[in-house]
Design a protein that fits this description.
By secondary structure, the protein is of the alpha/beta class. The chain folds into 2 domains: about 25-50 and about 70-75 and about 170-254, Rossmann fold; about 85-165, no CATH class. It has 10 helices and 10 strands. The radius of gyration is 19 Å and the shape is globular.
Amino acid sequence: MLDVISVCRNFGGLPALSDVSFSLQRGRVTALIGPNGAGKTTMINCITGVDIPDAGRVDFAGEDITGLPAYRVARLGISRTFQNLKLFPRLSVIDNVLCGLTVQGGQSMLGALLRPPRVRNRERRLRLRAMAALDRFGLTELADWPVDVLAYGDRKRVELARAVVSEPRLILLDEPVAGLNHEETATVAKEIRALRAQGYTLLLVEHDMDLVMRVSDHVVVLDGGRCIAGGTPDEVRRNPLVLEAYLGRTGALA
């Protein structure tokens, strides 16, 4: 589904990513882990067109997408969540989720202003899809609430719904359980497993190692902008390089 090939990214002469390569298998959950500053979010930004690699290539479904702007990457079927929530606080929950369908809107500016029947019909169809996404994440009753009055965990679910609503081919989750309690984390884990069961391909960036080990099929480890390990959760759990560079103590993944 996705091939990252020798990607490098420098900021002010300092390497954030150095010759990073890994692949994502279709229909599986791949976790990208590492300590703070390892380059995980920079990697997601390079994949989604938010940032541009200095060297290397990103291939999606056999197509070179390196350096494409974010809106073109989204149109190809890649969606994401953000480490720091990127929601429109004064818009309603459903309007935030509808933003995930803007690449499928299709109307011109004139059509949006005049709203002929075909545009109104399309808007109704998109709204039904948004409501289905809200139902998937248990947010139906909050559809018309402004996002800024929601609890933090509910906002996280809104962002997940927005990432899924367009039925993308690849979903990138950047720390989806950061700041959540144990019960909320368990709910997100259940939702990730459900997405995988439905055939979605996911890249998960997360510090919660218990979640990573429970939901991932494959784990890639970054440290200092370099890929130091990759394999099944069990293999990574026992890798001495991971234990030393990322965890710092032998029992951390036990």
